[in-house]
């Protein structure tokens, strides 16, 4: 049995969906023969080419059961209705997709230093700067005006979309201090203080993880300024006492000798500290004049030093944002990286190849060996941005060393910032994602993967998947998917289907000193496009599912032992890898090839099929390669009661290969028939002479060849034989798929083979092969072969890995969700 087919049967219960498969209109088979094998007759009208699977392995599936899937209710209504209505609906969807694509392209084309929301807290600090010419007026009156114009109806300032007591109170107190300092808008000040006093008690009710960065230091400092200008504030609040205790503890931990000599994250929050040596700190100033890209920290530094570079930075951002300033700026690296990540995970990256390429080049331009942070030319690096940048650069073929992560590792632990000892969920999440793109010999990535995996699993087990940098729709879902479906098993449409539900769009909020939004990273247009595109692709997939069922009936594959469940899973694997509507030929070639391999290998392996019968089958195939009408000549004219099983199988095989050849000729104007028959003949010969433990040799290569040939992608015979990368790709994909199938079939769970911690069927050798395969596919040498051809190798290998590492219930769930549940 073929390796992919073996996995399909072993991991997928044959009866699980039999009563609930989507129906399709089918023509009756042209004949209903009594079949026999070469030289032997059977009384049964069904050919036992595929032996019945024992259901004991899936007893828990049948006991627990799956909900009865009402396919007619969830299959896309695009398949039903009047032709004119369907045509109008299709045109409307296409127009909506085009509008969204155009809007997003405008956004991506306008990216500069980062589009972000305004921080009332930072704006208040900037508004406190006095005129440098000594007039006693504000240096930035537009900042004061912004504050006056943006008080919320409840008297507070801050992020209006969601209520966070920490965010509202620190923003409000800063704005009240600013207005009071300049003796303007007393009524606004009164309303602001009323809000603070009424809501101060709510600080103790909120998650400490969602507390703005540095709140426990910045807020007490603001209180001292407020009291110095006669703003009354209660002293007996238990909440305040707790904040002061946290402030004192944190200040005792601040290594002031270090913060004055090397750049650290403390540069971002200077306004909350006293007793600073400004002569030393100015040596740590960034090239744009800021202190770690913080407007409030830089404003405070200017008040203390009158440094012209600080003033230049502040003037620039006040003009850029018309008075108000963000909590950090620039955010260019962060924006460029996270935009690409969102577009890819939502499954809509193919609309923006040029824009994504430009973003990745931008990231590469400012990448340094020590790592990166949210803005270019930073002297402080963080693991979150570094991991995201590393992952994107490696995925897009750029040379990038994993040694960058050594800067964030100490004594076996990985931290968010160098010299610190803390981790954040999203930082470890992105480290885990990056670590899975390891190439052979990259030990630091193995260490990073193990550490981040264990960290995230522990947080998951303790229900602590809450992050200090973002408030997002479904962070537990994102982390859960990454932990359960490793990159080697994550298929494109599967990831997109889940991420569309996890992505919060414009509702996702980031946490800095205050809450803020990144509209080019989180917006509803991405989400709407992703939903429209997904449903459009799904409609095409459902139509193809009907088509492949008609093919199944036409060639009597049921009589050859193939269940509709196996057919469905074969198509699911193909469609989840190659999902674009225009790539229908590749999907169908993949699915049909997998099924035909299953039939052939099952026929060869079944009891009663002698070596002579196998040889006869191979000779029959070779002798009829040039016979285009085998089905008509050999089967259509035969007595239906005496059709040989081998002849029926050959009829299905020739029919499928002729269809693939004809489709390729129509689409690509190239005749692939000779090449297609040659690769099949080669595989049949290998299968005929295979031995136990090596029965799946050549199957992945056949899949790759057939998929690429179906769309006219092939290389010259010289390159096929001599190109070292091409030959190695075949060796690797064949070894991976062969070993995975063998382990799965034989349930070999010895030490080092079955990973009980991660619950995955794998071996160190399989992991090494997958790493080398990824290296050959992702890297871009000068004498490289077509990237699409290389991606086919990786897609086939990942499909084997996926099936081996997901149990039957999970696969059933994925099939339903990906192919038949419409995205709302």
From TrEMBL:
Residues 277-483 form the Terpene synthase N-terminal domain. GO terms for cellular component: chloroplast. Its cofactor is Mg(2+). Keywords: Magnesium, Metal-binding, Signal. It holds the Pfam family Terpene_synth. InterPro entries: Isoprenoid_synthase_dom_sf (IPR008949), Terpene_synth_N (IPR001906), Terpene_synth_N_sf (IPR036965), Terpene_synthase-like (IPR050148), Terpene_synthase_metal-bd (IPR005630), Terpenoid_cyclase/PrenylTrfase (IPR008930). PANTHER family: ENT-COPALYL DIPHOSPHATE SYNTHASE, CHLOROPLASTIC. This is Ent-copalyl diphosphate synthase. The lineage of its organism: Eukaryota, Viridiplantae, Streptophyta, Embryophyta, Tracheophyta.
